[in-house]
Amino acid sequence: MREGLHKIVSLDETIVAISTPLGRSGIGVVRISGRDALCLGKKFLKTKSPLEHRRAIVGIWHDDRGQSIDDVIGTFFQAPHSYTGEDVLEISAHGNPMILGRIVATVCGGGARPAAPGEFSLRAVANGKMDLIQAEAVREFIDAQTERQAEVARRQMAGSLSNRLRPAKEKLIDSIARLEAGIDFAEDDVEVPDDGAIAKEFDPIIESLEEVQKTYGYGRLLAEGLRVAILGKPNVGKSSLFNRLVGAERAIVSEIPGTTRDVLTEAVEIDGIPLRFFDTAGVRETLNPIEKIGVIRAFETLSEANMAVIVLDGSMALDDEDRQVLSHAAGMPHVIVINKCDLPEAMTSSSLNGSVSVRVSAKTGAGISCLSDAIRGFLLERQSDVADDFVLTNMRQNEVMLRAIGALREGSSALRDHVPHEMVLLNLYDALSALGELTGEVVTEDILARIFSTFCIGK
User: What is the pLDDT, as a whole number, of residue 257?
Assistant: First the structure.
């Protein structure tokens, strides 16, 4: 077991869970992992041939009274050649929840216990079958909604990010070892490079880690999706544009101002990135209490969005209500859409103070492709050349990476200021600890609980 995990993860117990989604299906799988997996299989699975490593055996699953439950296929994986690194028995039965539940009940009656969410993957980490980054990628692969998400998660599962970090970590360990040797064997005249030379060694390590850290902006969008708020005053065509963008008549379109009161949302996909568009209420001063709530919710939606689409009516001159909307979106990424280009133009580009704009007609569909390209451009700005090969996809990974970079920068600065090496080593060990936390070599119970509580039971 990996060092440190033995205090958190107990491998003495055998665990069991249904690994397929609940509900009726052709096949359902029950997974058993632990030292008693094979014994439980021999006890409850009646077959003509013995269970052997990586061999599917047809048999009948019985309860503890010998009553037949279902015709099943049992596949045994002997430790350490299994998903968890332990003995694993997978039972493929008919996908009836009642039948699967009875199989689990017999296994629990035989001494196993129900698995916690993500406990199979947690044991895989504990037994060195994968690291923490790969375990997170397993969850992301299961949750993937687009081909791009699935492909990036698959590469992470194969160790793309872990492999990218390994050289930097090895260089850091080498630097720590030389500094430690210089301190421990100072009387033996162990040769240690001068402080400036050692500090320079950290520059490529920091650059390498920063290159990875910069992928987080794109990785977060890839994992969570891009939230796009459509904002504008009443009757500029926000709902019509929303319907065009999502390819469905989701929003009611009317010439009556204030038709949209609540926030409507719909998900689409651009270049493998999930996008969620939010159609909001028209922004204006109003005495109507319900419409006021809609305006408040529009601004709340804007504050939670990654970017905004500001819709203006191109057949009318810019007014104070338009300027109010523009001012609210000024501090975030946005694209200005001048709608109703099928009507005589009244709004001039000079009134937008040089802001980039796209002219469209939500009614006819003209210019919609240009708007999609503008949104695609926002995504491309956040995608580095290596983003698909290794990506930080969640806040935990980003926070730990920033800690490692910060500690290395402090250590490098301290060396250049000729701070005693004993003090510099504190920074270097902080950086090493952060990198270890990233991959799971250094863990706490809180970290594991936060990660694996989001997994489904049975994985």
Answer: 53
Q: Which residues contact 90 (CB under 8 A, 6 or more apart)?
A: 19, 29, 30, 31, 32, 74, 75, 77
* Dihedral of alpha carbons 199, 205, 207, 209, sign: negative
Amino acid present at 293: I
Please, are residues 133 and 438 in contact by the beta-carbon 8 Å criterion? yes
Residue ranges in the chain whose pLDDT is less than 50: none
CB 19 within 8 A of CB 459: yes
The structure's pTM equals 0.79
Please provide the average confidence, as pLDDT, over all residues in the chain: 85
Q: Tell me the C-alpha distance between 354 and 340, whole Å.
A: 20
SS3 category, 397: helix
pLDDT at 40: 96
> What would the two tokens of residue 3 be?
């060092």
The CATH superfamily of 141-215+389-439 is tRNA modification GTPase MnmE domain 2 (1.20.120.430)
Q: Which fold has domain 224-381?
A: Rossmann fold (3.40.50)
Burial class from Cβ neighbours inside 10 Å (0-12, 13-18, 19+) for residue 409 reads middle
Quick one: how far is CA 237 from the chain centroid? 34
Looking at residue 85, its pLDDT comes to: 94
Structure confidence at residue 446 (pLDDT): 74
Report domain extents, the chain.
5-130, 141-215+389-439, 224-381
Does domain 5-130 bear CATH number 3.40.50.300? no
Q: What tokens were used for 306? A: 């990654």
Q: Is 177 exposed, middle or buried (0-12, 13-18, 19+ CB in 10 A)?
A: exposed
| pLDDT score at 74 | 96
Are both 5-130 and 224-381 of the same fold? Answer: no
